[in-house]
Amino acid sequence: MWCTLIPLVLLPTPILGQLSHQNNNPVIDLGYAVYEGLHNATSGINSWYGLRYAQAPVGELRWQAPVDIEAKNNYSASRTMDASQPGPSCVQGYPAWFPPPPGRNSRYTIGSSQPGASAGNVPFQTSGPGNALVYQSRGNLIYVTIQYRLGAYGFLGGSDVLVNGASNAGLLDQRAALMWVQRHISKFGGDPSKVTIIGGSAGGGSVVNQLMLYGGALNPPFRAAIAEYPWMQQYRNASALGRQYDLLRQASGCNDLRCLRLLPDTKLRSATKETITTAYRNGDYGFGDFFFGPYVDGSVIRDLPSNEFKLGHFAKVPLLTSREGYEGVAFVNRSRLTDEERARDLSRVFSNAKQAFFSRLFQLYPRADYNSTLTRFAAAVGDAVIVCPSSTISAALSDYGQPVWKMIFDAGSQTHGALQPFVETVNVGDSNNATPASIMRNYYISFATFLNPNSVKFTSVGHPIWPVYQTPDIAGFRALSVTHTTVEPSDDPDVRPQCDFFHSQSYVVRN
Ligand SMILES: *[C@@H]1O[C@H](CO)[C@@H](O)[C@H](O)[C@H]1NC(C)=O
Ligand SMILES: *[C@@H]1O[C@H](CO)[C@@H](O)[C@H](O)[C@H]1NC(C)=O
Ligand SMILES: *[C@@H]1O[C@H](CO)[C@@H](O)[C@H](O)[C@H]1NC(C)=O
Ligand SMILES: *[C@@H]1O[C@H](CO)[C@@H](O)[C@H](O)[C@H]1NC(C)=O
Ligand SMILES: *[C@@H]1O[C@H](CO)[C@@H](O)[C@H](O)[C@H]1NC(C)=O
């Protein structure tokens, strides 16, 4: 689930676009293509699904930077295309330890929702991504979801790719989609100068990567960022990337990138799967790691996130970030019974670590402090990969003059991704959750429209001021703490020795 989540875009829309209607369904002319979307009379939301922003990344375009869709297509101005149904989703990049959930399959699509005229002010629960936010914003937001290449398709590295292809292609896809938004969102009534990027989990990590892209570009195609439970797995080094590439070559019977590009999709899919399985068996990656992911290439991603954030090499924009109560639980093997087994798993996740790293880690997570071996190791993994990075980026952006708000979300399932249904899909079901959900969405909408979660009220429910992360003359770091029964300001509980340790060892954790 967290693997398909991606930066999403929120846009304040002071003016509704010029839309022609057929059968109540909205038709949009993008200049190079005409799409008929879907009007939902119940919610008043217009949606367009499956819009391509780039050429299909197949054949010669595999492991290349995405090519804009406008450059080459067979669309015709006289033919209106159907955009009323979600398109297929990208080939997923699930690791061997991860049971893939049943779901839609597809590639390269962009969908956007636009509020219609009938939106009221009752919190409204809808099923499409973003619809709940669009609805509650009362016509002030457009929500765009994007897809990008995942797994080996988006994050194959190694010297052959560096020389003959594009590194971190998946991140380039995200940037290309954001540039498509810059070119076209005004036709939907959006303001391209007011884009907020948002994503959870790998999407939260993607938001962090977009901040760091090209060493922190001066004019990024967004003005604010929401990095939810940012998941920062190890950025593999050159030899580990070379090994991934070699495994893929072996599994596919190919010698070089040229051959890999010519493989039929079914062959590449099965070779990728075999690579992921073999590598897990060989111990090339551990439980909790997705194996293929963003890496340092010296240009798209210039250095490890910890270094880039220390040096101010990131886009300087306001930030909203969060982490859940028990982040690590989803990334450790529940069936392990002993600390010894778990320590072995951990040494695969932190594959660059030597003894001193583990000696200190076990000291900082003493057995006696935890009620089971599971909670002990889950705490360490969650801290290293999600919890501590959420504080590092908060401090860095705030040190460079940006307002930052951090949330500790300890409601819902309290585990990785627990926040998501409260803000995005909202099918939380019982009325107890409707109240915090409405408050969460209100903070998001206010942040996307006024760059501050406390500026405007898009809910009738009372809620506290969410304090900024750092304030001159005030000791410590502030956060918003959400539990099953409360929403209140708190100190950031993640400024502590365990996080100082992971930060000081970031060249070992490699994030
Ligand atoms: C446009 O090209 C795609 C594949 O590139 C093909 O599936 C589709 O049928 C073509 N459409 C038209 C109208 O030619
Ligand atoms: C999880 O742990 C159990 C028990 O030790 C083991 O049999 C199983 O192979 C592990 N699963 C994975 C995916 O590593
Ligand atoms: C329209 O919106 C309502 C309310 O969110 C939802 O229940 C329904 O499934 C939507 N209809 C379609 C066709 O998407
Ligand atoms: C690269 O990472 C691997 C583990 O992923 C590690 O075994 C190796 O020592 C590292 N190489 C260097 C040069 O750091
Ligand atoms: C163990 O600790 C976790 C996390 O603090 C808690 O959720 C769980 O209920 C505890 N389990 C037991 C058996 O006490």
From TrEMBL:
Q: What is this enzyme's EC? A: 3.1.1.-
Q: Which UniProt keywords apply?
A: Hydrolase, Signal
Protein's recorded name: Carboxylic ester hydrolase
Q: Look up the domain of life of the source.
A: Eukaryota
The record's top EC class is hydrolase
Q: Which Gene3D superfamilies match?
A: alpha/beta hydrolase
- According to the record, the signal peptide region is 1-17
